[in-house]
lysozyme
Amino acid sequence: MGSRSNMIVFTVLYLTMIATFASSQVPSDCLHCICIVESNCKMPDPVCRMDVGSLSCGPYQIKLPYWQDARLKGGDLDGDWKKCSASFDCSERAVQGYMARYATSGRIGHTPTCEDFARIHNGGPNGYKNPATIGYWNKVKACLSRSSHYASKEEGASSNKSTTL
């Protein structure tokens, strides 16, 4: 019975660890609004433009260091930053890979929200706590508020908060 108990304890600890450090999947409505804020979700022409001293590319305005970090969790990503950025699919996988690395509950201390994803996308790994990214989040939030699905989720959360006080 002792080894069985040890196995159960190990399994519970392992599953807890996986849940804590599991990669975050950016919801489609959040991802879409980040894309809207960055480029009106259109492929820029040219694909890359100078932004704060370095090139930002594609519909998500991805910089080279962002893409390099995203590859650690997002796979090959077409093997080339500019080529990836010129593809909606690859750009989206890059954002998901970046968030899988930096927007995890184990790293930020809570289950990531769209606000966390947006602010990390805009301000880097610690953007979720940088006051300079609040304006960016407000733009993403305005886009989300135009989505009835997101607005109804927010209203439900507000209702739940007021009834649980």
